[in-house]
Structure formats: structure tokens, C-alpha cells
Design a protein that fits this description.
Elements lengths: L22 H14 L4 H13 L6 H14 L1 H11 L8 H12 L4 H6 L3 H7 L8 H10 L5 H13 L6 H13 L5 H10 L5 H13 L3 H14 L5 H14 L2 H14 L5 H13 L3 H9 L6 H13 L3 H13 L6 H13 L3 H13 L7 H13 L3 H9 L7 H13 L3 H14 L4 H13 L3 H13 L8 E6 L2 E6 L8 H17 L15 H9 L2 H12 L6 E5 L5 H13 L4 E4 L4 E5 L2 E2 L6
Parallel strand pairs: 3-4
Antiparallel strand pairs: 1-2, 1-3, 4-5, 5-6
Helix pairs in contact: 1-2, 1-3, 2-3, 3-4, 3-5, 5-8, 8-9, 8-10, 9-10, 10-11, 10-12, 11-12, 12-13, 12-14, 13-14, 14-15, 14-16, 16-17, 16-18, 17-18, 18-19, 18-20, 19-20, 20-21, 20-22, 21-22, 22-23, 22-24, 23-24, 24-25, 24-26, 25-26, 26-27, 28-30
Length: 608
């Protein structure tokens, strides 16, 4: 046999020395390191220049990292970079496409968010198979554009086709997506939820949050109780969702239970959670409890300060709200535009016109904040509540932007409250011409006709509403008792105890007449005689709710009512008397503020 070949001597670096990387590999690694350090738009330019110089614009890994870096460091550059670098011949992979979808979904720019879903069909045209990470990003992009549910339905179909619809992350995102499409798609969200294993708080939180977004807060509370019974431990997201439901329902007992639950279960009281607690306690009428949570916070953001200012404003405690605003500035927290909405609202609800003017002027002069239409709306509301209708009209006409319908309707309400019916009619007619699909414009003009006893014209407005399929939102009041929320509508007989409730309302009316209360029949905008008008006022939803609580609770128990509309002047006067006759503190949250009735007076001092 021939002798074996001689052994070659190893390189000087030893037998285990790795071969030096190729120039292209070294350039790729250097570019990736530069992209890791890119945290600002200017710092992104260096790796971009290097990428172009070294010909890495066709490298999928480098492009993936570039688009991800642009999304976080320079959102405005993301779309131009994609348009320039995503060439037809570029090789794609699932990692790159997933990154593109995710980067566009997370963008603060609406145009980028709208473009996110378009990368999925591109992926399919290029023959790249999606994976289980593709669909959560894709479904989030569909959820970010709730006005186009067709794309979401197609994405769901694709998830089914590729076999990923049963994946836990995909299912959770499907629930979130459908709930973002509005109340009409909550059934689809629930169908996905019912088919998904319920062993994760994320799944429960997605459905609870969907119910809250869809206006079904009572269903959210029911589902939360099912979650507790199932043994799944709620997390912070679940708690935030149920606090939103409690705020919507005005469910103070539930809110206090959640606060105790957070402490008992050791769920961290993050700044976000504490801010939510402040907001919920305030909306449930416990403003002092909201202030206590705020004072116990170790760390506060501008949202924390603003939440307390809003809470005090809603209850008409304007001077206290202004004090908190000044304290916020004193400790070095600069107010933002939302904080100014809070302090202007506080001034409006407390009749502090001069102070409100000063804060409005200071936005530009002291803080460099350009007032938005919401701030102008606060000022119009403040002038209107104070009876300065002409000043409010001049203010609207001098606005630098076109007034929106809300501002005009605010002015109409002020005109009606202060007897300027001709001006109220003129503005209402203009609004109806420009916005013929909004029910509030019809109702306002109809009310003007009723106040001036022009019943024929009022009937014509109502017929026009009926012809267009426009209906008036009915008054509705909620009360929470023994952990259950009860709903009342004017004249409704659906409650199991409606007979006892109606008898209690009649007793309340007798007691009010005994002490001299006279019903404000001018509030009844119907062509009825005085006796029938008084009867119509008697069955308003808040009176039914109060009668129910008086029946079911011992003397001295506080009564809390949440109403979806503004409290009428007759109910306001009647509830003051009820608080005196029955020795109860009655808290009513209407659509704009809180009223705390006690011993025959209201915290708003009849200024609302």
C-alpha cells in the first residue's frame, strides 16, 4: 500500500482558528451593529448611508432591522424607506414581512397604519408562506382601521385557510379585532372567545375590553365574574378593563371591590392603574376617594394630575381644581392641552369666568400651547352657563377655525336656558341644514317650537325625523345595589318591582306637594294640559331609580344615580326636595357633571 499523505502543518493561529468572515458578511454585521445603536432620526442616517454604500439594500436581514429601527427611531421615515428599498426583485421572507406589518401598525402616522395590511397580499403574491406570528400583526393592523371590517374578515379567512386560527395568540387578536369593529361585531368576537381555551387572562381581558368598547359594560361585569369563578387570575389589563366598565355604569361598590382585590392579590399599583382608579372613583361619585388615591401615589404623571382636576371639575369644586392645577405647575409638571381642558371645565362648572379667561389666554402666552377646538368649546360653555350669551356668540364668530356642531349646540342650550329663543331657533335651523343626519339638531329645533307653543311645526319636525329613521335617545338611569346594576327608562314597566316603584314615586310626589314643591311643567315639551304634564314629569327615569333605592335600602343610605342625559330643571328641583324629605344624600351623575343633593340643596348651587 502506498504510504499515507504527509500531514499538513496547521496555520500559525492554531488548529481551531476560524476563517475570517467574508467582506460581505463583515459589512452586514457592522451595519446591524449601527442599526442597534440608532435611536433618533439623525443616528439612523449613518447605517442607512453605510447600507447603500456597501450594497446591502437587497439583504433581507439588514432591511428587516432597518425598517424596525425606523419604526421606533424615525416613524416619518418608515414609508419613504419602504417605498425606496422594497423593490420588485427583492427576496422576501416571513420575518421581513412580519416586521413590515408590525412596524406600520405601531406607527403614530395614520397613513402608515392604513398601509399595514397591504403587505400580506404582497407576501402571498411572492410565494412566501405566513407563519403563526404573521396573523397577530395582520389582525392588529385590521383592528387599527375599524372602518374597513372587510379586510379583517379576509384576514380571519386566511388564518383559517393556513391553519393558524386556533393558535392562542391569533384567537386573542381576533377577539380584539372584532370588538374594535363596533357593537355589531361583538357576536363574532364572542364566537371566537367561546371556541378559545380560557386558561389565560389575556383571552378574558380581550373579551371584557370588547364589551366595554361596544357599550355593553354590564356584560363585561358578568364575564369578569365568570372569569373569577373559572379560577383564572386577572392581570392588570383585566383590571383596567373592568374599571372602565365600572366607570361607565357608575358602579362604586364594584370599583371599591376592585381596589381591595388589587391590594389583596398583589397586583402592582402601576401609575396607569392608579390613574384608572382615580378616573373610575371620580365617575362613580367618590371624588374624595379619587383624591386619596392620587395623594397616595409615589409617582405621578400629567395624566394623574389631570384626572384629579377633571374629578373636581365634574363635581363643581372649581376652586379646588384650580388649586390642584397651580400645585401641578409649582412642582414642575408642565400642563398639556388636556390639563387645560380640565381646568377650563372646572372654571365653567363653577362660574369662574375671569379665572377661565386668564387660563385660556395663558395657554399661548405662558405655555406655548395653541388652543384647540375643545378649548374654545370650554370657553363657549363657560360663557353660556354664566348667561353671557352675546359674549359667547362673539367669541364663536372670532374663532380661528370653523366651529363644530358641538360648539353651536352648546350655544343653543345657553340661548334656551336664558330665554334667547329667536337666536336658538336661528342657530338650530342652520345646524339642521348643514347636518341633517344628526338627531340632536332636530330635537333642539323641536324643543324651540314646543317652548313657543308652535305645536304644528314641532309635529312636522317629528315627522321628518321619523321619515329619515332618526330617533331621539331616551332618558335612562342606572343604580347599583348589592352588586347588581338596575336600569330605568321613563315610564318603563320592565323592572320586576315596577308596581312597588310606581307606588313609591306617587308617595314621593305627595310628600313634595306637602312641602310646597310645584312641578316645572314648562319642561314638558308636549301639547298637554297642566295635569298631564305634571304626570309626565313624575315618571322620569331618575325619579324611578331614586324610588327603587328608597324602597330597598335603610334610612340614611346614600343614593347614587347615573343618567345618560342632562338632568332637567324639574327633576333637579324635585331631587333637592327628596333629599330633604327623606334625609338622604343623593348623587346624580348626568352627561356633563355631578350633582350632590343634601338637605334640600345641590352642590352645583343651581349653576349647571
Amino acid at each position: 500500500m502506498p504510504p499515507p499523505p504527509p500531514l499538513r502543518s496547521p496555520p500559525s493561529g492554531g488548529p481551531y482558528t476560524a476563517a475570517p468572515p467574508s467582506p460581505s458578511r463583515a459589512a452586514e454585521q457592522h451595519c446591524l451593529r449601527l442599526l442597534e445603536r440608532a435611536t433618533t432620526p439623525s443616528s439612523l442616517l449613518q447605517p442607512l448611508a453605510f447600507l447603500l454604500k456597501r450594497g446591502l439594500h437587497a439583504n433581507p436581514l439588514v432591511l428587516t432591522r432597518l425598517f424596525a429601527a425606523a419604526a421606533s427611531a424615525a416613524p416619518a421615515l418608515l414609508e419613504p424607506l419602504v417605498a425606496a428599498l422594497l423593490r420588485p426583485g427583492l427576496p422576501l421572507d416571513a420575518f421581513l414581512v412580519n416586521t413590515l406589518i408590525r412596524a406600520h401598525v405601531a406607527s403614530p402616522l395614520p397613513s402608515a397604519r392604513r398601509a399595514a395590511a397591504a403587505f400580506f397580499p404582497l407576501m402571498l403574491r411572492r410565494g412566501v408562506a405566513p407563519n403563526k406570528f404573521t396573523f397577530p400583526f395582520l389582525l392588529k393592523s385590521c383592528a387599527a382601521t375599524p372602518g374597513s371590517p372587510a379586510a379583517g374578515l379576509q384576514a380571519h379567512a386566511a388564518a383559517l385557510k393556513f391553519g393558524f386560527a386556533a393558535d392562542h395568540y391569533v384567537s386573542n387578536t381576533l377577539i380584539h379585532m372584532y370588538s374594535c369593529f363596533g357593537a355589531g361585531f361583538l357576536g363574532d368576537a364572542r364566537n371566537v372567545f367561546d371556541r378559545t381555551p380560557r386558561d389565560s387572562a389575556v383571552t378574558w381581558s380581550a373579551m371584557i375590553g370588547g364589551y366595554v368598547r361596544g357599550g355593553l359594560s354590564s356584560d363585561a361585569v358578568v364575564l369578569f365574574r365568570e372569569m373569577q369563578a373559572s379560577g383564572v387570575r386577572p392581570d392588570e389589563v383585566t383590571v383596567l378593563g373592568i374599571l372602565s366598565a365600572a366607570a361607565d355604569l357608575g358602579a362604586l361598590e364594584l370599583t371599591r371591590w376592585v381596589e381591595r382585590f388589587v391590594a389583596r392579590e398583589g397586583i402592582g399599583r402601576s401609575v396607569t392603574l392608579c390613574n384608572a382608579l382615580i378616573d373610575t372613583l371620580a365617575k362613580c361619585g367618590d371624588v374624595d376617594g379619587a383624591v386619596a388615591v392620587f395623594e397616595g401615589m409615589e409617582e405621578r404623571t400629567v395624566v394623574s394630575w389631570t384626572s384629579v382636576i377633571d374629578a373636581l371639575a365634574m363635581e363643581g369644586r372649581g376652586k379646588e381644581a384650580v388649586g390642584v392645577f397651580e400645585e401641578m405647575k409649582a412642582v414642575g409638571v408642565p400642563p398639556d392641552d388636556v390639563a387645560f381642558i380640565g381646568v377650563l371645565t372646572a372654571c365653567s362648572h363653577a362660574g369662574m369666568v375671569d379665572e377661565g379667561r386668564g387660563y385660556f389666554d395663558s395657554m399661548k402666552t405662558e405655555h406655548g400651547i395653541e388652543p384647540k377646538i375643545e378649548h374654545y368649546g370650554c370657553m363657549v360653555d363657560m360663557f353660556g352657563r354664566a348667561g353671557m350669551v352675546e359674549h359667547g356668540l362673539e367669541f364663536v364668530r372670532a374663532m380661528p377655525m370653523k366651529p363644530n356642531p358641538i360648539i353651536w349646540r352648546t350655544l343653543v342650550a345657553a340661548c334656551r336656558a336664558h330665554g334667547r329663543l329667536e337666536l336658538s331657533e336661528s342657530i338650530s335651523r342652520d345646524l339642521l341644514k348643514e347636518y341633517p343626519a344628526h338627531e340632536a339638531n332636530y330635537v333642539m329645533l323641536s324643543n324651540v317650537f314646543a317652548l313657543t307653543q308652535r305645536w304644528k311645526e314641532k309635529s312636522e319636525i317629528r315627522r321628518e325625523m321619523s321619515k329619515r329613521g332618526i330617533t331621539k335617545v331616551p332618558g335612562c338611569s342606572l343604580v347599583e345595589l348589592d352588586g347588581e346594576v338596575h336600569e330605568f327608562i321613563a315610564g318603563d314597566e320592565s323592572h320586576p318591582q315596577y308596581k312597588e316603584i310606581y307606588r313609591m314615586v306617587e308617595e314621593m310626589s305627595r310628600e313634595l306637594r306637602r312641602i310646597g314643591h310645584i312641578a316645572a311643567t314648562s319642561e314638558v315639551l308636549l301639547d298637554l294640559d297642566e295635569e298631564d304634564k305634571e304626570g309626565a314629569l313624575q315618571w322620569h327615569s331618575e325619579k324611578l331609580a331614586i324610588a327603587f333605592v328608597l324602597l330597598r335600602t335603610p334610612p340614611g343610605t346614600q343614593v347614587r344615580v347615573v343618567k345618560n342625559l342632562r338632568v332637567c330643571s324639574d327633576c333637579h328641583a324635585a331631587i333637592k326636595c327628596i333629599s330633604q324629605v327623606y334625609n338622604r344624600e343623593i348623587i346624580v351623575r348626568d352627561r356633563s357633571r355631578f350633582h350632590r343633593f343634601k338637605d334640600g340643596s345641590c352642590s352645583c348651587k343651581d349653576f349647571w
